Amino acid sequence: MERVGEETCYIVDGGLLSNYPVHLFDEEGAPSWPTFGFSLREPEETRLIRSEVRGPISLGLAVVDTMSSAIDRQYIEETQWDRTIPIKTPPGVSATSFDLTPETRRELYEAGYAGAKGFFEDWWDWDKHVRARATGTVMERV
């Protein structure tokens, strides 16, 4: 729960609508503080089929999963890419992988560290970010 002026705002998990609601923490115009998000990205060549389709229900779930993933990816790339830290996941690891081995957890941690380090050292610039947000644009990644 967050207080905004005299209003009370509730932020709930809206995974079906968007798994990446980083915009909820924005303010109008130029930002006063940075807001970053982390995006787990499977290497394209190792992307696994998430579930086996065995009938109409599993087909429907697979369609919903595909649609929400595609919508989130498009949203991130078009409007939030300038503050998204991509993390290249080990093969088969996703945001819903809850039974990771200690070795895989360590590998994922190191991938996150490398992704954040590269983002801040090689690319991200606060002044450019403020100008882009004030004008309603997104910084272009080179």
Q: Would you count the extended β strands for me?
A: 4
What kind of sheet is the major sheet? Answer: 2 strands, antiparallel
**Spans with pLDDT under 50 lasting ≥5 residues?**
none
The geometry reads as: globular
The percentage of residues in β strands lies in 5-15%
- What is the overall number of helices? 3
Number of domains: 1
Helix content bin: 25-40%
Reading the helices and strands in chain order gives: EEEHEHH
Average pLDDT metric: 78
Going by helix content, strand content and strand pairing, the class is alpha+beta
Strand order of the largest sheet: 1-2
Instruction: Give the CA-CA distance, first to last residue.
Output: 37 Å
Radius of gyration: 17 Å
What does this structure look like?
- Strand 3 (37-41), helix 1 and strand 4 (84-88) form a beta-alpha-beta unit.
- The longest helix has 25 residues, at 56-80.
- The chain has one domain (2-135).
- 6% of the residues are buried.
- A two-stranded antiparallel sheet has the order 1-2.
- It has three helices and four strands, in the order E-E-E-H-E-H-H.
- The chain is 39% helix and 11% strand.
- The chain has 142 residues and is of the alpha+beta class.
- It is globular.
Outline of the structure:
The protein has 142 residues and is α+β, with helices and mostly antiparallel strands. The chain contains 3 helices and 4 strands, in the order E-E-E-H-E-H-H. Strand 1 and strand 2 form a beta hairpin.
